[in-house]
Amino acid sequence: MEWTKELIDRFLKTDPATYGHFLGVRFMRPQIKPINKHSKMIGPAYTARILGKDSCAMYRAIEEAPAGSVLVVDRCGDDVYAAVGEMVARYAKGAGLAGIVLDGPGTDSLWIEEMGFPVFCAGISVATTNVWGISGEYNIDVNCGGAVVHPGDIVFGDADGVVVMDPANYEENLKKAEEAAQREIAMRAKFDTAEPPKAKPVGALMEHDLAALLMAIRNGELDFPEFYKK
Questions:
Q1: pLDDT by residue (tens digit) across 99-158?
Q2: Residue 29 is part of which domain span?
Q3: Quick one: 163 and 202 in the same domain?
Q4: Are residues 126 and 214 in the same domain?
Q5: More exposed terminus of the chain, fewer Cβ within 10 Å: N or C?
Q6: Which of 27, 168, 156, 43 is nearest to 96 (CA)?
Q7: Shared domain check, 34 and 135
Q8: What global pTM score does this model have?
Q9: Closest C-alpha among 91, 47, 51, 52 to residue 71
């Protein structure tokens, strides 16, 4: 896929939570949120895995990451040492990155909030890392916040959290999200007047004998999609 400004703009007109409805889309733990809640970021992943206090591999990743990338940092379970603060955020911003997400704490939260550069993390800490160069890897498959992230995967985050998508499916997912955004315009008007979300109230759906329906579907006596359309 070619990562263009037009594609970025289309994605940013949708919301990560919409993609949470789609099969195959991965998501990071809900604890991972932006330091500035107004942040919204999207871009191809460039990854790093760093251990404890040694953040050398993360700096190397910033040096190597193509402009427009989202730096994804696997902290290997560490929840004490903040690997990203104001200076790392400034460095990444200056290098043209679209944002940073790490599954450990960040620091310098007020500075980062003022900068407006997207930094997503799992908390805030005053304990920080050092650049030692004795451990760590970059541009590899990682696990960040419970989501497997491959270099080049699409990473999309806002105030509600972060989703990860296979770039091979981006067009299908984007189109579905754009269609959902259009449907929501009409849904808002309906919900504001308490109109039920479907042609009949959801209460009618609850009246069915679920066990009997499942058994009928299992025995081939009922086509589930046709039933659901009724």
A1: 999 999 999 999 999 999 999 999 999 999 999 999 999 999 999 999 999 999 999 999
A2: 5-174
A3: no
A4: no
A5: C
A6: 43
A7: yes
A8: 0.86
A9: 47
